[in-house]
């Protein structure tokens, strides 16, 4: 009789270390490799498509090491939070903070960076204008040793010409007066190593112009190009006035050159006035007093009045910001959280 082979007792193979790790990450017990931080305001229709598309790509990059998508609900008045809760119930790696009101995208991003647990953190917009297909390339660069991998828009054709021109002017003005240069056409979409995130978290200022803070932080940087497409669903939350305010925040927080300009301008005008006084004295002595000059007096009075008002205004911009800083209020208030243990 042929000896019968014994059946193995254990039919299923034991879970691998990778599987166990993935389970722990899913339950929130181990820090994931990647955290995608997404500020959202009234974006109920964008949440599910975002989670599906970005989740698939993240699974491709870091299924075993783990990932999380951390939404920051920036005071939405629609059912954005409900959509996030639904996504969390389907996949525990989707988490969220809900702020007590609308604090603005910069503050929402700060909240996200404070609560992200990944070894690398990637801020993204929810409207798919930051294509997740770039993520593998970003992560590859990070694994090569770059601590900050920022996305650069290859073309901005999805923005109207007015936005392209004003954005171009802004980057020029910012980089002309500030030592921390913002890379042209780079937005908030970037990958940051934990080290960079910790530096940004530790910055004490209330004024969070993120692109300026990222530029200030330094570290080894690399760029990855991408095409910025049109928003898929929903509408933009930025009008020109908001963008203008953001630009003022950016410049005043990065540079004091606008304060200094006035001393130089004052000096130039004073020199010019001195020369002109000499000319009038000479003119009177040689040609006598013909009492002309109404036009020149009006012009100089109006011009100097205007210059003084502008310089006062610039002073005001800075004084106002000093006031905000000295109040030391928190940057944001968290009302609730989804999938985050206190
Ligand atoms: N956003 C936010 N708080 C705000 C305004 C915008 O969290 O007060 C979010 C918004 O939901 C989106 C991202 O910031 O995920 C970018 O906003 P948007 O697409 O409107 O800006 P744009 O791409 O038009 O510059
Ligand atoms: Mg957008």
Keywords:
342 residues, alpha/beta, eight-stranded mixed β-sheet, 11 helices, 50% helix
Q: Which small-molecule ligands are present, each listed once?
A: uridine-5'-diphosphate, magnesium ion
The description of the largest β-sheet is: 8 strands, mixed
> Helix and strand string, N-terminal first?
HEHEHEHEHEHEHHEHHHE
**What is the CA–CA distance across the termini?**
66 Å
Number of helices: 11
Helix content: 40-55%
Shape: elongated
Mean pLDDT: 83
Tally of strands: 8
Indicate the proportion of strand residues: 5-15%
Strand order of the largest sheet: 7-5-6-4-1-2-3-8
Q: What would you call the structural class?
A: alpha/beta
Q: Uncertain regions: pLDDT < 50 for 5+ in a row? A: none
Rg is 28 Å
Could you characterize the architecture of this molecule?
Helix 6 (161-177) runs parallel beside helix 9 (240-254). The chain has eleven helices and eight strands. Helix 2 (47-62) links the parallel strand 1 (34-40) and strand 2. With 342 residues, the protein is α/β, with parallel strands linked by helices. The longest helix has 34 residues, at 294-327. The structure holds uridine-5'-diphosphate and magnesium ion (MG). Magnesium ion is lined by residues 125, 127, 129, 231, 236.
Could you give a quick summary of the protein structure above?
The chain has 342 residues and is an alpha/beta fold.
List the helices and strands and how they pair.
Layout: H1 17-26, E1 34-40, H2 47-62, E2 67-73, H3 80-90, E3 94-99, H4 105-115, E4 120-123, H5 135-144, E5 148-153, H6 161-177, E6 186-193, H7 194-202, H8 210-217, E7 221-226, H9 240-254, H10 257-287, H11 294-327, E8 334-338
Parallel strand pairs: 1-2, 1-4, 2-3, 5-7
Antiparallel strand pairs: 3-8, 4-6, 5-6
Helix pairs in contact: 6-9
Bound molecules: uridine-5'-diphosphate and magnesium ion.
The site of magnesium ion has 5 residues, from loops.
